[in-house]
From TrEMBL:
Subcellular location: Cytoplasmic vesicle, Secretory vesicle, Synaptic vesicle membrane; Presynapse
Alphabetic keyword roster: Cell projection, Cytoplasmic vesicle, Glycoprotein, Membrane, Neurotransmitter transport, Phosphoprotein, Synapse, Transmembrane, Transmembrane helix, Transport
Subunit structure of this chain's protein: Interacts with SYT1/synaptotagmin-1 in a calcium-dependent manner. Binds the adapter protein complex AP-2.
Keyword match NAD: no
Domain Major facilitator superfamily (MFS) profile: 163-731
Composition-biased stretches (Basic residues): 24-33
Entry membrane topology: Multi-pass membrane protein
Protein name stated in the entry: Synaptic vesicle glycoprotein 2A
Record Pfam families: LD_SV2 (PF23894), MFS_1 (PF07690), Sugar_tr (PF00083)
Protein's organism: Oncorhynchus kisutch (Coho salmon)
InterPro entries reported for this sequence: LD_SV2, MFS, MFS_dom, MFS_sugar_transport-like, MFS_trans_sf, Sugar_transporter_CS, SV2
């Protein structure tokens, strides 16, 4: 039916409306972003709509779906319309602009950016915010249902598995970061002259950095996108992990590891949220649990690389005494590879379409979902299947316009943009404590804290207990010599684990040897000669040195406790650190081996949780695993040997991993998409805080008592399992 205007008349109308927009924009005289363009575009669409309503011969009829919304094309036109073409893109002259968010051929619903006052007179721009939020809530509910239907149509296949391995690398990088500092400390303390306090701070700084990073990147991911935020966080991690392998001073190394931790802190909150938004309801719990496997792989990778690299002291070089690059620095460099690989792979993957839809970007989301559908269908041998979705519900957006005049300096503009972004992130964080989510958030905080406090506290306490038991066994083999007299003897072999009391040594030579755990008490050294001595945990207490020469030794005066020096001289003392002790090669191998076994032990728990997550539910998995872990804590009282402690470490790790997997899945599903990363990041930051407290408290009781760590761990796990039952079950629900 002829509408009386004709095709040329319609195009003239569009050109005229856009010419008006240009004139208005020039007369405005201010840089107001693209709000005028959007208003003109919206006006053009609404005015042009009357042409479409009068046209009874519509070329593209829309078939209503079962829920009454026009989401799918008529099958007779599906194949013809796959490329997507619209009259809205026709009629542009050379000066026409392509407006942001303009309809360019992909069928969609009316623009999602419909904030208060768009296209209205100034006096009508104040909207009822309660009504706006109600409309937004309704849009989100409709989007959740439709999005699940679309994911069902897209299927689960090649695309999801590709994304699985890409995000797995990012999760693997997080697992590696946890182990790096613990593995390099025995070697790094020699190069950096670390005291016990410095070593403790270096061990905790990674958790502090990850705590800051989880909160920061989680909040940003809900505002600027999952993929973009993850790329930024992994890049920061890679850069400072690389720098940390070359810096020489303790302060510089500490700063680099802190910033590296800040970078990798965004990995867990973003990875799980990102992946969940590509998974259909029946696949979500299982495949998020499979994703947790990469954290285990990261621990295995770190243990294997430490075992293969650090003990090879020949893999080093130095430039004078100022710059040294030893094998442990090579290990730190190698541990940055998973993060670099994740960045490279992530550049090939798209943004989450759910994030785009939540932010009113229909076309971008449609293209990504079509890519998911086509990739999976081609891999399954059905390339002829067409993505039948034409329009997807988008959530109404509140325009947040920052008016910046032409004279505003660039740094002021950036400051205003950053302030606006900060306000958005902060308001989103406060929203998870709104009445609607307050109870859920507080309960999740308690569960996350109790789980992290007990898990990290015990996993660090186990290796420290093993070291303590090793030291006890070593001390039991100490040889004691009393009132020995030695004259004119040359000692050129290793002296180890001995105590000499009331001895007399006359005209003896101690040359080219190592002293390990040697103690001389109330002894006399007269006309003796010490040359090229390397010592650890060696002390001279209440001894007298007469006419004795120390040449090129590390027997610094702090090792001479209440001792007298008579006509004795120190020449060319060795430069280096005044260490009270250092671990030998066998001890280092034991650390790597124990960590390798403890990490590998979580494999059965990962498999069981993945297979049962969607069958028994998240709450039963979380609470059940926590109860069994609580019971296993009481077996710690029987850990009186090194082998028994290793077995208990593996048992606890294998059981508790199911709780972590269930908690990750539950956190993803309890919060809506626009708050998911923010909530996950905050809870993960709280997790790292609890880890710092648990590690500090549990390790303080090593060698004192086992009762306190057992009671703390079991009490925290019992409380966590009890609170878990109070949370809502999310199995079988669409992603909010």
């Amino acid at each position: 039916m002829d509408d009386g205007y004709g095709q040329d008349g319609r195009q003239d109308f569009i050109r005229g409306a856009k010419d008006i927009a240009k004139v208005v924009k020039k007369q405005a005289g201010k840089k107001v972003g693209r709000s005028v363009d959007k208003m003109a575009d919206e006006y053009t669409k609404r005015s042009y709509k009357r042409f479409e309503e009068e046209d009874e011969d519509d070329d593209y009829p829309v078939q209503q779906s079962q829920d009454g919304d026009g989401y799918y094309r008529n099958d007779s036109r599906a194949n013809d319309d796959e490329g997507g073409h619209s009259d809205s893109t026709e009629g542009h002259d050379e000066d026409d602009e392509i407006y942001e968010g303009e309809y360019q051929g992909i069928p969609r619903a009316e623009s999602g950016k419909t904030g208060p006052g768009d296209g209205m007179a100034p006096q009508a721009q104040i909207r009822d915010l309660a009504q706006f939020e109600a409309e937004r809530r309704k849009d989100q509910e409709e989007l959740a249902q439709q999005y699940e239907t679309i994911l069902q149509e897209c299927g689960h296949g090649k695309f999801q598995w590709t994304l699985y391995f890409v995000l797995g690398l990012a999760l693997m990088a997080d697992g590696v970061e946890i182990f790096v500092v613990g593995f390099v400390l025995p070697s790094a303390e020699k190069d950096m002259c670390l005291s016990e306090e410095s070593k403790g701070m270096l061990g905790l700084i990674v958790y502090l950095g990850m705590m800051v990073g989880a909160f920061l990147w989680g909040g940003l991911a809900d505002r600027i996108g999952r993929r973009q935020t993850l790329l930024i966080s992994l890049s920061i991690n890679s850069v400072f992990a690389f720098f940390s392998s070359f810096v020489q001073g303790y302060s510089s190394f500490l700063l680099c590891r802190l910033l590296s931790g800040v970078g990798i802190g965004g990995s867990i909150p973003i990875v799980f949220s990102y992946y969940s938004e590509f998974l259909a309801q029946e696949k979500r719990g299982e495949h998020l649990s499979w994703l947790c496997m990469f954290w285990m792989i990261g621990g295995i990778y770190a243990s294997a690389m430490a075992w293969a690299i650090i003990p090879h002291y020949g893999w080093s070089f130095q430039m004078g005494s100022a710059y040294q690059f030893h094998s442990w620095r090579v290990f730190v460099l190698v541990c940055a590879f998973p993060s670099v690989a994740a960045i490279s792979a992530l550049t090939t993957m798209p943004e989450s379409p759910r994030f785009f839809l939540e932010n009113g970007k229909h076309d971008e989301a449609w293209m990504i979902l079509k890519q998911v559908h086509d990739t999976n269908m081609r891999a399954k041998g059905y390339p002829e299947r067409v993505f039948s979705v034409t329009t997807i519900k988008t959530v109404k957006q509140m325009d947040e316009l920052v008016d910046m005049g032409e004279g505003t300096a660039w740094h002021q503009r950036w400051r205003m943009k950053l302030a606006d972004l900060f306000n958005q992130v902060w308001s989103n964080f406060l929203a998870i404590f709104s009445p609607e989510y307050r109870r859920t958030t507080l309960m999740m905080m308690a569960v996350w804290f109790s789980m992290s406090f007990s898990y990290y506290g015990l996993t660090v306490w186990f290796p420290d207990m093993i070291k303590y038991l090793q030291k006890q066994e070593y001390s039991s083999r100490t040889k004691v010599f009393i009132k020995e007299k030695v004259e004119h003897v040359t000692f050129n072999f290793t002296l180890e684990n001995q105590v000499h009391r009331n001895g007399e040594y006359f005209n003896n030579k101690f040359m080219n040897l190592k002293m390990k755990s040697m103690v001389f008490e109330d002894s006399l050294f007269e006309e003796c000669y010490f040359e090229d001595i390397t010592s650890s945990n060696t002390f001279f207490k209440n001894c007298t040195f007469i006419a004795t020469l120390f040449y090129n030794t590390d027997l610094f005066k702090y090792r001479l406790i209440n001792s007298k020096l008579v006509n004795s001289t120190f020449l060319h003392n060795k430069e280096g650190c005044m260490l009270s002790d250092f671990s030998d090669e066998n001890s280092a191998y034991m650390i790597y081996f124990v960590s390798f076994l403890g990490t590998l032990a979580v494999l059965p728990g990962n498999i069981v949780s993945a297979l049962l997550m969607d069958k028994i539910g998240r709450l039963r998995m979380l609470a059940g695993s926590s109860v069994i872990s609580c019971v296993s804590c009481f077996f710690l009282s029987f850990g009186n040997s090194e082998s028994a402690m290793i077995a208990l470490l593996c048992l606890f790790g294998g059981i508790s991993i199911a709780s972590w997997n269930a908690l990750d899945v539950l956190t993803v599903e309890l919060y809506p998409s626009d708050k998911r990363c923010t909530a996950f990041g905050f809870l993960n930051a709280l997790c790292k805080l609890a880890a710092v407290l648990g590690i500090s408290i549990f390790t303080s009781f090593v060698g004192i008592t086992k009762a306190v760590p057992i009671l703390f761990a079991s009490g925290a796990l019992a409380a966590g399992s009890f609170l878990a039952f109070k949370l809502p079950e999310t199995r079988g629900q669409v992603l909010q």
